[in-house]
Write a structure and sequence with these properties.
There is one protein chain. The protein contains four helices and three strands; from the N terminus they run αββααβα. With 105 residues, the chain is an alpha+beta fold. The chain has a domain of 70 residues: GMP Synthetase, Chain A, domain 3, CATH 3.30.300. It has a three-stranded mixed beta sheet with strand order 1-2-3. The radius of gyration is 14 Å and the shape is globular.
């Protein structure tokens, strides 16, 4: 049996823990300098678990869920974490990631 990709692992962990109505996990490693790896991810999640939780606590919760991945090579997460109401107010759009400013590009 082959191992799951880092992207699949992140998707599975967040799906189970957050029960999101929307979850997008995009591998953006190709946009950054250095060898192609699974090290940079853009995550958009819409979940009722974020209700009455400030942005810092939302981020902390996701970092805790992905503690192992962060210890094993993931070093950049662009997190866009919304409640259902916030997502509606944004009209279903999360910001794009900025271009990489570091690395060997």
């Amino acid at each position: 049996m082959s191992a799951m990709s880092v992207q699949d692992t992140i998707q599975a962990k967040l799906s189970e823990a957050l029960q999101p109505s929307l979850l997008e996990v995009a591998n953006e490693s190709h946009m950054h300098g250095g060898p192609a790896t699974e090290s940079h991810f853009n995550i958009t999640a819409v979940s009722t678990t974020f209700t009455d939780t400030n942005l810092v606590r939302r981020h902390q919760a996701v970092y805790k869920l992905l503690e192992q991945e962060l210890a094993e090579g993931v070093h950049a997460l662009a997190l866009h974490l919304y409640t259902e109401q916030e997502w509606e107010q944004r009209q279903g759009a999360s910001p794009s990631s900025p271009d990489c400013r570091g690395g060997s590009k």
